[in-house]
Amino acid sequence: MKRSIALFNLATLAALACLCQAATAQTDSQWQWRDGNGRMVYSDVPPPPSVPAASVIKAPGRFAGSLRPIEPGGSPAAGAGPAGDVAGTQPAPVAAAKGDGKVKAESMASAEEAFQKRRAAQSKAEADQAAKDLAAQERQVRCAQSRNYATSLQQNRRIAVSAPDGTPRHLNDDERQAELQRVNASLEQNCA
What is the structure's pLDDT at 61? Predict the structure, then answer.
């Protein structure tokens, strides 16, 4: 019995290793580029001719950059792309068109800055939500305690309060009714 479980576990591990290897091999044959709107595109086929080669970030194979000819000036070769798109209809990023590394570095820095701002805003929103959740839990506990206290007052249990000198004294019937009205009003206002 133990041996069959061990063999099953070994077979499962081998299958998982094969799946991981296949997934890794598949990602090595993918293309990655930025489209005309600046969005990242992942595909297992090359980008259309309307995408400048400078926008291609990852390509499979050793000579992936030499797969498409580029005219001087960074625009793609003349002609129509897939679905009849005329080459050059999508605006190329400024850094890719000029080949200017400084502009690309500035755009990367601004993208990083925007990411940090979004992350800070998300962290703040999560902290605000956690504070709201904690306040709601504390409110529920206070309301449950107030309801229990009101039930004790209604059942005529002996309720002791501290006198000004610190000694305990019990509420009489009139004080009990006034306290019950105060607690019920608080419950209606805060725990409805």
Answer: 66
User: How far, in Å, CA of 41 to CA of 127, rounded?
Assistant: 33
Measured between alpha carbons, how far is residue 184 from residues 13, 158, 189 in Å? 63, 18, 9
pLDDT tens-digit map of 143-181: 999 999 899 889 888 888 888 898 998 888 898 899 899
Q: How does DSSP assign 153-168, residue by residue? A: HHTT---EEE-TTS-E
Q: Is 74:92 a contact under the CB 8 Å cutoff?
A: yes
Residues contacting residue 80 through CB under 8 Å, at least 6 positions apart? 86, 87
Among candidate residues 77, 79, 186, the one with its CA nearest the CA of residue 142 = 186
Q: What share of the chain is helix, strand, coil (3-state, %, to 5)?
A: 60, 10, 30
Mean pLDDT of 66-90: 44
DSSP 8-state secondary structure symbol assigned to residue 55: G
- Assign 3-class secondary structure to 93-120: CHHHHHCCHHHHHHHHHHHHHHHHHHHH
Tens of pLDDT, residue by residue over 82-94, are: 444 444 444 444 4
